[in-house]
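Q: Structure tokens for this one, please.
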Amino acid sequence: MTLNFAVIYGSVRQARKGIRVAKFIMNQLAKTAHQATLIDPMEYPLPLLDKMYKEYDAGQAPENMEKVARIIEAADALIIVSAEYNHGVPAPLKNLLDHFQKEYLYKPSGIVTYSAGIFGGTRVGVHLRELMGEYGAASIPRMVPMPSINKNFDEEGNTDNERLHKSFNNFFKELVWYAEALKQKRKEGVPEF
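A: Here is the predicted structure, written as tokens:
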């Protein structure tokens, strides 16, 4: 079964390094038969949340909001790529995620965190699990923390760290399993939200 993944990255910092992790993920997905689209808030800037996408009349939402909504709607699963800012979710990521709701429903999400340190942003993963469940895209059990990204990844998202490759591959197999199962169930119908 061919699947469509939305990879949602959450930093707009001038000297952001986490884009290396997002590129790594996109590079890995390019080796599969699946489709993937990167949602980068630098490419799709959204206003600070005032009105959610669903609160606009059809065709009246800002252009970038429409584009992101179409990507998420088409996705069978989401991969959230997040730094840990003061033990929490970066504001640009939270703002992007909060603009949408029904577009997420009954799709699995996988969480990939990162940091310059040795823990790989694991604490933010706990927050993201709560958020993704609230959005209706509950996260799969396995998360992937990516530590020491300055050392482990080059500018293009390449790494020779076999442990990181293995960890991501196991995570991705699990996400595919959930995505295939939920895609089939969505075809059969979903509970009313």
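A few notes: The chain has one domain: 4-188. The chain has six helices and five strands.
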